[in-house]
Design a protein that fits this description.
By secondary structure, this protein is α+β, with helices and mostly antiparallel strands. It has helices at 12-20, 28-45, 47-67, 73-110, 128-135, 138-164, 166-170, 177-217, 222-233, 236-257, 294-305, 314-323, 335-356; strands at residues 263-266, 271-276, 286-292, 309-312, 328-329. A hairpin with a 4-residue loop joins strand 1 and strand 2 (271-276). Helix 2 (28-45) crosses helix 4 (73-110), helix 2 (28-45) packs antiparallel against helix 8 (177-217) and helix 6 (138-164) runs antiparallel to helix 8.
């Protein structure tokens, strides 16, 4: 596998960095379809006032024309201007509501991301070769296929709905103005709501596709993952060296405590532990140093240099090494064998003192 191939999932840091750049995924079809549904339901709630208002506009316009004694171009312009102003009273609130709903739906998808990175000029987009490459790219092909599918959905819904309403449409001239407007409003509502439902299903599929495409686009190479780990966690080799230095320093501090020990128990060179007992401060002997192989030899060597009593007890040395942490008192199961050794040491020290006297 090529080292530059993007096969790894994007890390959280990578996702956060892409988000800061403004590179996020969202489906515009989700915004448009859900926005359409919301507007349809809003219009359904206010359809009666709208119809009455529209009817009043038409009636007032007809009355204005019929009562005008001299119908001139200025009169026509005044009547048209009044119709436009009245129509704006209907269109403007609906347009503002549409914009607000679109803003909310888009913000929910992007978590209301605000970034300046997208405002920076990108002169690479002026390159004709790059433009041609984008036109014939896989993404452009997918967007074209999506557009074709949406056109097919819209055409199919319009054809089936209009075809089913032709018998009623023929009778439209025989209806009153109020009945005509009511029928027309219901027919448009049925078409739009069905269209919105189909487009919402399409938008759900598009959302999943956009999520898949985005995760695929921001994937990382193995080298990028390693480099990011080095940046966030530090160079593994450097961390290993630091740990090695820290371990050696801890060992040196431990070796310096060996001269304070009462006894060193070894096995015979593979394991060594140093114990110190200071009653009544200590309830039990404390393990102040322990080591294996080279470190065990170093403990034994330091003990010999400082005249610390050294005894060989293979099971006890290994048991204490595995069971007791540094600077911790030994557990009760070791009291008896350690007490025997310490008693022997104290007796030996008394004997030596007596001989000196």
């Amino acid at each position: 596998m090529a080292s530059g191939e993007k096969t790894e999932k994007a890390t959280q840091k990578k996702r956060d960095d892409e988000r800061k750049k403004g590179n996020i995924f969202q489906s515009r079809d989700v915004t448009s379809s859900l926005g359409l549904l919301a507007i349809v339901f809003i219009l359904k709630l206010i359809v009666s006032p709208i119809l009455l208002f529209t009817q009043s506009i038409i009636v007032n316009s007809i009355n204005s024309i019929s009562t005008t004694t001299e119908f001139t171009d200025n009169t026509a312009m005044l009547i048209l201007a009044e119709i436009i102003l009245r129509a704006l009273l209907i269109i403007l609130p609906v347009g503002l509501a549409t914009g607000f709903i679109g803003f909310i739906l888009s913000g929910v998808q992007t978590r209301f991301l605000v970034t300046k990175s997208r405002l920076k000029p990108d002169f690479s987009k002026l390159n004709p070769l790059m433009g041609i490459k984008r036109i014939f790219s896989r993404r452009a092909l997918i967007e074209f296929l999506k557009s074709v599918i949406k056109v097919i959905i819209i055409a199919s819904v319009l054809y089936t709905q209009i075809n089913s309403k032709i018998p009623e449409l023929i009778l439209l001239p025989e209806m009153s103005l109020e009945q005509s407007l009511s029928w027309l409003g219901n027919a448009i509502y049925d078409i739009v709501i069905l269209l919105a439902v189909y487009m919402t299903l399409f938008a759900a599929a598009d959302y999943l596709y956009q999520w898949w495409e985005y995760t695929r686009e921001i994937r990382m190479t193995k080298q990028e993952v390693k480099d990011e780990y080095k940046q966030t966690e530090g160079d593994p080799q450097l961390k290993s060296r630091i740990k090695d230095v820290q371990r050696k320093m801890a060992q040196m501090r431990m070796i310096k405590k060996v001269p304070q020990a009462d006894v060193v128990i070894r096995n015979p060179t593979h394991y060594a532990v140093a114990l110190k007992y200071n009653p009544p401060k200590d309830k039990a002997p404390v393990l102040i140093a322990k080591g294996q192989d080279y470190l065990a030899l170093k403990i034994i060597e330091t003990a010999e240099q400082n005249g610390i009593y050294i005894t060989e007890n293979k099971p006890l040395a290994r048991g204490l090494y595995e069971a007791v942490e540094l600077n911790r008192a030994i557990p009760p199961e070791f009291y008896r064998p350690v007490a025997d050794i310490l008693a022997f040491i104290y007796k030996l020290k008394k004997t030596k003192k007596g001989e000196k006297r």
